[in-house]
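Okay, any thoughts on this one?
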Amino acid sequence: MNLWEIFVAFVLGIVEGLTEFAPVSSTGHMILVDDMFLHSDKLFSKEVATSFKVVIQLGSILAVVIVFKERFMNLLGLKKDLSVAEQGQKLNLKHVIVGMMPAAVLGFLFKDYIDDLFSAKRVVIGLAAGGLLMIVADWFRPSRAKVKTVDQITYKHAIGIGLFQCIALWPGFSRSGSTMSGGVLMGLGHRAAADFTFIMAVPVMFGASALSLVKGWSSFTIDALPFFIVGFISAFIFALISIRFFLKLINKIKLAPFGMYRIVLAAIIYFFCL
């Protein structure tokens, strides 16, 4: 593995880690940075480059597990936090399963078609459309949030957010942007929507990564392994930093500023780079 390959993996890991939990589309940003500047498909095959962009999300998954470790231990029954139980904890594993199922089913059925969508032009569409959705969500959300904490989420909320997550199968739309927009429109507070989005992302992202690995297994060579390892470590470190920052920020600035950023970025790329 040469220095350029290390640099490409490291930079793409940074992009993934910093943008995974902001509603701006980490996959979209990785595709844009890669297609316009880094060209990882020239280092390895196109199949390996596409799988890399999915698999390094496992680094971000690990960051979520660490940040929400107490919550996950409670969900899996590995630890009972009495202080949380006394507060009337309602979120359970069924909520997560209900929320992830729509995207998981569609992702499995249309995996080949979704992989074909990984291009800069389609990402620009997703960025603009997703940004508009987030602005609309902030404009038309209930004046007072009915659900202020993740423990007040019902199964109805979970399935509704899960359906919004299906939109993010189009690269550039953003999983967190779609689910948080859906949650806010359904009456969730921004922090509650963000918490559920991140918790639900773990099985969804793990499943997508595993499916991508299985599909592209025949294309892998041992030479590509260090490339994946560097990207994974980079994504983990920067995701750990960004997720804590974003959770403190979301209640203050809401979704609209992120939506505006996405639309401006899409316009700049469309008019000057494509």
About this structure: The chain has a mean pLDDT of 88. The first helix runs from residue 3 to 19.
